[in-house]
Amino acid sequence: MVGGDRALSSMSPVSAASTAAVRLRDWWSRRYALITESALCARGTAALRIGYGSLWVLYLLTEFNERLAAWGPGSAWTPALDRTYQAQTPMFSWVRAWLTAVAGLGSGGFEAFYLLAILAGLLFALGWRTRISSLLFCFVVVALENRSPLITDGGDNVLLLMSIFLCFTRCGRHWSLDARRRARHAQATPTPTSTSTSTPSSASWRTELAAVREQVANVLHNGAVLVIAFQVCVIYATAGLYKVQGSMWQDGSAMGYVLQLHWFQPWPGLDSWLLGHGVVLALAGYLTVFVQIGFPFTVFTPKLKYPSLVVLAGMHLSIAVLLGLPFFSLFMLVGDAVFLSDRVWRAVERRVAGPAYAGVVNAIATPTLVFDGDCAFCSSSVRWAKRWCRPAVRFVPWQSLDLAAHGLTEEAVTSSVQWLRPRTSAKPIPSGAAAVARTLLRSRWPFRPLGALLLVPPFSWLGAGVYRLIANNRYRLPGGTPACAVPKARVEAAPRADAEAEGAPEAPSTPEALSTADAQSETLSAAEPDQRSIGLDELLGRD
Amino acid sequence: MDEAPRAGEALPAPRPAPGRPPRPGRRWSRALVGLAVLGTALVVAAQMLATFFYNAPRDVVSTKYAAQVSWWMNPLLNQDWQLFAPNPFSENVEVDARASIGQSGAVSPWLDLSAIDAAGTTDDPVPSHLTMNAMRNAWREYATTHGSNGLPNSPLGTTAQQYLENLVLTYLRPRESGTIDSIQVRFIVTLIPGEGRTAAQTAPQTQALPWWVVTAP
To answer: Which is it for strands B106-107 and A394-397: parallel, antiparallel or unpaired?
Structure first.
């Protein structure tokens, strides 16, 4: 286990058994590297942190007027009751002290604790010193939720569990004040490696310890993510599998009964309207139970996972409105976020940040559209796209690209535009209409839905046909001078700079436009040295 | 998969890729990481097993290892996901209370506490936990810790009764001017009409609890 990857050297792969052993070890060392060297679902846990932290703050603010009656020293669940209740279950004394911490507070102490609880939620949501604020958040959530156990519901239960599990995750890696500070620190000290090579053992010990700490943190994080995902699956499976045994869920009458309960009736008019649609209620009940039971099995395939999550989100939102349990539903809904992949979260990140901004911040992930620089129509189309669509995409003529290094052939690049992204080596490279659609998807607002539309089957076929028609006749089309070859080995700068440079009217000649763009890239590189230093090959380099 | 350099060997200049932290190179530090992997795997496996058997119906394993599962899950990790399962509630419970005031012993009329809660939640998108959950849970806790004869059948019975009494007093006190000497609570349970339920079954059933002398100030 410890030296899993060391075994690779001493193998003599002769028999089938030993090849199998090699494969197994290979598999294991890859898995081992995955759980020790990466924090899986780091953005998902960041979403959980922000979700639970801010919901907790909202919860405490909405209960602010009721806080004394709910948890204060004079609440119906008196401190004495709380102590006798907690004494019924055997537990460690420190746990008992934790659970009854709020019960021991006077009125002044309780007010201070309540403010501390709000503050803890804020700090946790913002990701301020997340290691510490996650512990503080866990402390206040567990203490307050156990102060009055009989006013809680399933939502409080989820929140409590997640606040414990999140302590072990690296939920501050993204979208946090910590992440911002780290990024600034990294900018301030760009080359820490030069010092570590020359200094003696004390520094190397320190880097070694930092490396161990990093990997142990990853291991704990990945374990906690597994526990969180498992917990969410257990919630749905338990709820679904117990329901399927109930006669009312079997005959489809359950939802009708639920809507008639006076306990969960914030909108009586809406309930009585829904009760007139028995068939819809029965179908909704069946769908709910089916998806709840199936959820643990659907999480393994995106094709089923995302539709299931949509159904569950719909279920939670209806619970929030119809049954008057908004926090219950939202706490559940946030837990589902752990199943959204990092790819989805990165897309959300881009959407929130805006495409052009994301291109500057995350230059490594900026995709590249490879076009034919010899074709006048192509070049002017690219200029038009930069001028009007302003996508977070690099446009590179294939003539200035090492085709083989990027898995491209001359035949491919002359027949259609190609879409290059880091880390897509396993999949075929999107080209033609699909590449154009992806460019539009990363463009300014009016073009984005168009790009999404062009990726969906009936329209994508249509788009592919139109693209082929244009591509086959592109030398006949107008748009620029015929001799618009691009000088070799020249890489364009980030598209945003071009878009800004071309804000003013300019001559339509393509070589001129490209050279102004290059001049612009020099000024850009002076301002942002590290962005300039990343060559195209590194940008597109496979890991 | 890159090969990890061994301790003592000449390390290539440690040039971590941007965003990728350095790996531990020494034997002891890699052993430490391995230990962390092993420990985490064990704890995660225990947590998953305990969670499963805590939530599963009573079975061979959860009966045999009930003490271990309970030790792991209680009190921090306990959970209950059976709201509306196997069957949802299909009865409406109205909690009423009345008070005997002062030395005169004048008895106030029945006060419908559930109607007060309902008025507090109606048309409110974010109702308080107090109005949504408190009375329902208090009733459920009382009902599950007391037998049909009204006597507690669980060590938590007195706690449940005391809590219900305190909670009812929070409704009665602001509405009664005199000092409350003792209180009485009754539950009116009405089955919601549905298929296979006769009119006799859906008639309201009243369960009146005995008078409780109020000891708390």
So the answer is: unpaired
